[in-house]
Amino acid sequence: MAQKIAVIGTGYVGLTTGACLSHLGHDVVCVDVDAAKVDALNQGEIPILEAGLDELVQEGRTSGQLRFVVGAAPAVADAEFVYLCVPTPQGGDGSADLSYIRDAAAEIGPHLPPESIVINKSTVPVGSTRVVEQALGRSDVHVVSNPEFLREGSAVHDFLHPDRVVIGADDQSAAIRVAGLYLGLAAPLQVTDPASAETIKYASNAFLATKISFVNAIAAVCEAVGADVNDVVLGMGYDKRIGDAFLRPGPGWGGSCFPKDSHALVKIAEDAGYDFDLLKGVITVNDQQFTRVADKVEQAAGGSVDGVTIAVWGLTFKARTDDLRDSPSLEIVGRLVERGAVVRAYDPAVDAGSDDARLHGIEVCGDPYAACDGASVLAILTEWDEFKWLDLDKVAEVMAAKRVVDGRNLMDRNPLVRRGFVLEGIGR
Description:
Structural class: alpha/beta
CATH superfamily of the largest domain: NAD(P)-binding Rossmann-like Domain
Shape: globular
Radius of gyration: 23 Å
Strand content: 5-15%
Distance between the termini: 54 Å
Number of helices: 16
Number of strands: 14
Helix content: 40-55%
Largest sheet: 6 strands, parallel
C-alpha cells in the first residue's frame, strides 16, 4: 500500500531514500532549503555521482510519485511518515552536532498530522530520539530510529538489497507501520529500542573501520618480515569467523561516515564513563597510515619530495563517487604538499581546474597522462578500475622516472616491471 512520505534533506542519504521509497511505490516529497538545488532536481539534474540514482529519480518524476520542494511545513502537512535526513557534522570535541536535527524537528513539529511518524535516518548519538521528541513538542506523534547502512557508490543497491533493516521504537505499532514501508525487500528485520538502534549504526561503522586499520597494520608487519599481505589476507578470509570483507590494505579509511562516526562513538563512550581505548587506537593507526603512504612516496622520490613533481591518480575517498569529504588521498597529498612536493592529479569524477577549496595546492589535470607528465613518482590513491587499463607505455614515456607507489594494490605488477617501473605497494 502506497504511503505519503516526506523526506527532509536531499543529500546522499535523503536523495537515495526518497528515490528508492518512490521506486517501492510510495508517494514521496523531498524537501531542501536550497531553492537552486530543488529546481535542478525537478529538472532531473542529480548533484551527486551515485550509480542508478539518475534512473530512479527520473522514474519517480515521470510517475509523479517523487517531487522536490522548498519548505518543510507544507510538505509534512499530510505526510504519514517524515524522514529526517539532515547533516550531523562532527563538532570540535568529536561529538555529533545535532543543531540541524533540532531545527528540522522544531520546524515541522507544529505542522505534523496526529499519529504521524518521524523517522530519524541521520546518524545520531544515542539518545537522539528523545532529542527529536523534545524538539517536536508533540505528544501525539511517534519518533522512530531507522539507521541507514548505505555505501557511497552503491547506495541504491544497498537500499533495495539491504543486509538488514533496523527499527528502533518504544511503540510497537509505530515499529510495525515503519516496517510496512519496506515490504518487498528481502532482508532480516530487527525491531529494538531506539538506543540500541542508534548504537548499531555507530558500532557497525566502528567495527568496519577497525578491520581496515587492522589489515593496514598487518600490511606494515608484512613489509617488515617479507610476507605478502595479499596471501595473508586470503588465508585469513577463508576463516568463516573472520571473512574477507574490508580486509584489503590501502591508504587508510575516510569519507563522510567512518571518521565522523568513529570520533562520535569515542565521545559517546566518554560521556557515559567508558574510555574506548581500542577505537582510539583504530583512529591513530588510520592517521599513521596516511603518513606511511606519504613516506613511501618520499622514499620512492629518493628521500625528499621538495620541489619534486608527484603524479596522483585518484582524489575521491573511494571509486564510483565524486565525494572528496575526508578523502585519504587528500590527506596523503596534503602531507606531500607540506613537504614541498608539486602535485599534479587526475580523478575521473573531479573536473580539471576545479576551484574546490579542498584541492588547494593541487593541479587537477583533465587526463591521467597529463598528470604524469614530468613526474618522478606516480601515486595511485583511489581504486578506479579504469586505471588498470591505461596505456603503460605512454605513462612510461611521459614520466621523468618510472616509479609507482600503488596505495590500493590495484595494478598488475608484471606489466609495470616489464616496462622498467619500480613498484611499491602496501604490505608487499
